[in-house]
Amino acid sequence: MLLFILRRLGVMFLTAFALTFIVFSLTNLQPNLEKLAKSEASVRMTDDQVVSWIANNGYDTPMLSRYAQWLGVLPGWVKTMEDGEVRGRCIAKGADPAAAPRYCGLVQGDWGSSTVFKKPVSEVLGRSLGQTGWLMLTVMLVMVPTALMLGVLSGMREGSRTDRVLSTFAIVTTATPEYVSGVIFIALFASATAGLSPLLADWGWISGKTLFMGTATSAMDDITFWNFALPVMTIALYGIGYIARMTRASMTEVMTAQYIRTARLKGVGFTQVVLKHALRNALIAPFTVIMLQFPWLLNGVVIVETLFNYKGFGWTLVQAATNNDIEMLLGCSVVAVFVVLVTQLISDVGYVFLNPRIRLA
Amino acid sequence: METLSWFQIIAAMAGRFLPVWLALVVTFGLSISFRRRLGLYGKLFDSPVGMVGFGIVMFWVFTAIFANWIITMDPLAQFSGSKNAVPGSALRAPVDGGYTHLLLGADHVARDVFSRMVMGSRVVLQIAPAATVFAFMVGITLGLPAGYFGGKLDTGLSFLANLVLAFPVILLFYLLVTPEIVQTGIPMWFAAVLFVFPIIFFVILFNSRFFTNPARRNLYVGVVLVLGLWAYSGLAFNLDPLGVWSMDPNLLNVFVSVVFVNAPGTFRIVRGMVMDIKTRDYVAAGQTRGEGPWYIMLWEILPNARGPLIVDFCLRIGYTTILLGTLGFFGLGVSPESPDWGSTIDDGRKLLSIVPHPALAPALALMSLVLGLNLLADGLREESLKD
Fold first, then answer.
1. Chain B residue numbers touching A27 (CB-CB < 8 A)
2. N or C: which end of chain B has fewer CB within 10 A?
3. What is this model's ipTM?
């Protein structure tokens, strides 16, 4: 078991290295650097000025060495400008070059600084991850119980009317990507001209113009039901269908097992059989599915945060990507890769604990 | 000229879709009467779920085919005075003999929402199935040997596949689908690698079967190589001497990225199925007969894995449609004029809470297509399990 985890951790680090290197090399392509130069300094720069900006800011050194500097295993670059100013990777603007550390990279705990937000990456990431954390937590609290309940209810009696209705619902939600359900939700509940809100406002049931708020910007300071429900529902809905279908499949399989028939024949009531005998075994498979949903949730988070203008991790990622903010993007990908790989590890290890019949080599 | 009521709008739209309805009736009529002779496709018509799914999918396929007859206006034309017009409103200055109403209203630059939605189906249905086919070719060509031989090859390929799968899709799109990347020529090299797989697949397919009969083998492999390399030179490098095969660089970029994201998933499924099937007796029998590994993989294992692969193919077209929508939603790759559903949703969302209809129409269209594909996959799964 320990060996298995160690090996997985090794693969994880290898994957993280490979992925950050890919991100690094893609963001450091020459046209991307030129774009960065133009957005940082001035759009109307001549080609010569662009080249000198790239050189002055240390982007002209070999890519591998810059990647190593970002990791913190090579000393950061230092350059003396023509006017005698000493610039370097580890030297903050206006700081004394002599006092700056030689190494500043991931190993030293320095994530670099963001060119879009003009702040250290760790600060931006910390704040945005906090925002997204609340969103994810709420989504999980809504999604997991709903999905499990739907799956168990429909898998309990396969082919019944409840099963048909719930399965249809599950299929519809898996066919609705976040940007579609988000648009539909806003049109239905948060539009002043269409959907429910004008009706409710006419009847005098709501004081504002709309029932829910179409943006979640205000939720960053103060989460209320009215500004947070739509984004949460939008992300949760897409996952609900998938998890419910997996739970249903696992539940129907368990319900045909021998020990369930035995329990029924002994005269145990249906509710008791479901709650005591079936449920525990039926929930093993969905556990893996829920854990593996995390990477997909990340996707949903990016879409929903853009749609509802909620400045969390996904929003930050989009901002960094559109402006070719290299160190911010690297930070984001480290976080994303970490989330993906850790959830995979947890799902594998957790599976073994939940199902004692499986042994890991 | 007055605004149409909702009933009139629906009737008018149903009328515009007339060629689609006719084509659907013909397809269903023929398929149901000959369903006993049509194999798995015919059995689909025994399952109501599958039939509904097939109907929705074919609706959009025929819409894409007949789009030129269905649209009421030029999807790129702007009609002055109709900015954000509500569904059913009349045109200020209709052209003589032209259509007089905006059936689903107009968007923020006064283009007809209905016509754009219909034309959008053409963009989506051109890219999504083709990209899925390419992803399957890559996944099958790499997944078969990985599952069959195992060992170092399997470890290496699986690591690569997991690497791509661990990448957040949106980050990958943001890195790969930009005008800057097109400048560097990276999409071309991606295409050069990914588009070679179909050629390899068919060459090995025919070679492993007919290598005992060189005349036929040479004919088949020759045809594949001539056709394949001709298309390859045009699609990947834009160097087709006759100019038949070519692809817009932006479209190529989108296409290649979507194939790249989808291929590892297919690889994993194929690999898993091969690992399961290779323990069967008929594979052992083939090995004792002295059949080559590629013959066993392509002509004995692959046909026996077709059921789940067909189901996954349907689901994956749906997933690709969603991915294309995501690309459009973030304004990546496609031109801003493009009527594809993702971009129109993105255009419409800025004014969503005031004028929802320009975003709602493509959103519902996309949702119904994916739903149709999911139902179709469900029906196929149900029917293929019955054997």
1. 175
2. C
3. 0.85
